[in-house]
Specification:
Blueprint: H1 3-7, H2 21-26, E1 37-44, E2 50-52, E3 60-63, H3 64-76, E4 81-86, H4 104-115, E5 120-125, E6 139-140, E7 143-144, H5 146-163, E8 167-170, H6 177-187, E9 194-201, H7 208-214, H8 234-246, E10 250-254, H9 260-269, E11 274-278, H10 280-291, H11 297-311, E12 315-318, H12 321-329
Parallel strand pairs: 1-3, 1-4, 1-12, 4-5, 5-8, 8-9, 9-10, 10-11, 11-12
Antiparallel strand pairs: 2-3, 6-7
Helix pairs in contact: 3-4, 4-5, 5-6
Amino acid sequence: MSKSIEKFPQTLRPRRLRINASMRALVRETNLLCTDFIYPIFVISGKDKKEPIPSMPGCYRLSIDNAVKLAKEAWTLGIRALEIFGLPDYKDEIGSGAWDMNSPVQQALQAIKSALPEMVLIADVCLCQYTSHGHCGKLCGHYVDNDSTLELLQKTAVSQAKAGADVVAPSDMMDGRVAAIRQALDAAGYVNTAILSYAVKYASAYYGPFRDAADSAPSFGDRRSYQMDPANVREALKEASLDIAEGADMLIVKPALTYLDIVHRVSEMTNLPVVTYNVSGEYAMVKAAAQNGWIDERRIVLESLTSMKRAGAEMIITYHALDAAKWLQK
């Protein structure tokens, strides 16, 4: 026995459990699964369209036929949920395209549900893509009026449930919207349609590429009067508590990477499933660095997604879903 070992006896050696890949897998505390992912897609009118989104490499605006093809690909990779965003054919002051049954989102819901009945379809409930001013509700001057917006969100959610949405996801951040939507869904007979609430949505700079993709940037001002201040933690717990009380079935914390402390705090205070949204800006930065050869994209993505689960998220909305599912299968 060497003198160094005699001098420094080591009865506990954590490295024993890191000795090889099989051992590391055996004792791994957090496992990333394809079924953890919710894949967000953008749909448009027309046929055989696949428009690249320059700020989000690998993502596209898809016509309904191509959205169905993509949904089938996702299913074969083990992804069991999609969130559907759409670019409408028209915009107006109140965003009436959001509840038009002929709009791309409603059409995509019907088509994908028909092709893949078991795929969980989540519809975004918000008006920003549909309003001529780009804000998430009905305006009173330059102020987004909370209570009159609730009626429009109710119409939107019911139309999406009618089209085949299993889950509606209000992302507008109006006060009382979960209760209003639950009331409207139940009254229309959609008692089994779940509500995945964007309970904690910060007014973040990380949304830029999404607004490009969905053509949803506000024409004036910003959304800080209804989305949350990035500096606040207690407010996040208050927002989550209110949505739980109003009947939310699941909760979202958005964005993900710079808010993992919030993901953890919310997961600790509720027994509802917690979801985090790995948003467009987070995605675009990784893609840009990977295209320049500065990072190992596969390792960075899987490490980042694992961190979200480790923080307490049970599901992750991510544009990396297809790539990550392929890597996990290998």
